Amino acid sequence: xxxxxxxxxxxxxxxxxxxxxxxxxxxxxxxxxxxxxxxxxxxxxxxxxxxxxxxxxxxxxxxxxxxxxxxxxxxxxxxxxxxxxxxxxxxxxxxxxxxxxxxxxxxxxxxxxxxxxxxxxxxxxxxxxxxxxxxxxxxxxxxxxxxxxxxxxxxxxxxx
Length: 160
Hints:
By secondary structure, this protein is an alpha/beta fold. The chain has 8 helices and 5 strands; from the N terminus they run βααβααβααβαβα.
């Protein structure tokens, strides 16, 4: 069971057009119907803003949207502290507030996060410069994360 970041579903929408890859989108629709695929409300709002057609498809499919709760906010604050981010001083090369909320949502829903943000193979000199995959992989965060194509590979689904 997975939770999407905006970057991954937009990547899929842009690179695997629904009209050209109908089996993929039919399969994804079934995953949504079975609640195997969900999205945080924060990520959903980003999708609507950046790719309205994709957002409308998700809305039409009635994807489960996880709203920010007090527990998610607490976890996000903990992660923000681990990264050494004070107030709203986010580093331009690292995660932002929405990213941290999305990571916290994935952790508290115990779901693999599907994100197409760039992988950093070595941690930056400041943790505040970490992108989503690096934050997820921190020992004190530990959220399973992969990109969209790896999610497809791991699913074992075959699209004819």
